[in-house]
Amino acid sequence: MRLVKKNESEDGYIWECRKRGENAHRNRRSMQKNIWFAESKLSILEILLVTNMWMKIANRVSIAFEIGVARSSVTEWMSFCREVCFDMCDFESSILGGLGDIVEIDESMFGKRKFNRGNRVNGSWVFGGVQRGL
Hints:
Layout: E1 2-5, E2 13-16, E3 28-30, H1 44-55, H2 60-67, H3 71-92, E4 103-111, E5 123-131
């Protein structure tokens, strides 16, 4: 397969079989077929821009304004990016520590104080661990 510029496709390119002659397949596939932005109404460029700005921690309103797409589309793609990251962390996670290994553990509580008073904070505890020297 080779990438060929075609104006009739939605993104301007298609994959086309290289085989020629009497055994030619004449197979053509959209560039977006069977990839993670298939079936999106956004162009590949818009999707890549949303993903790039999401990685730079821009908020959805500024992303939608800069690229010129609907906020709902940006929200959907940001959720998808978070889901992909979560799945990779879940898939790639491993057990820390072992005999003779040192693991540093930290905990933090994320919550919001009411009116900046010294009252108790309702929030969520988050624990993390790092093994040095991996």
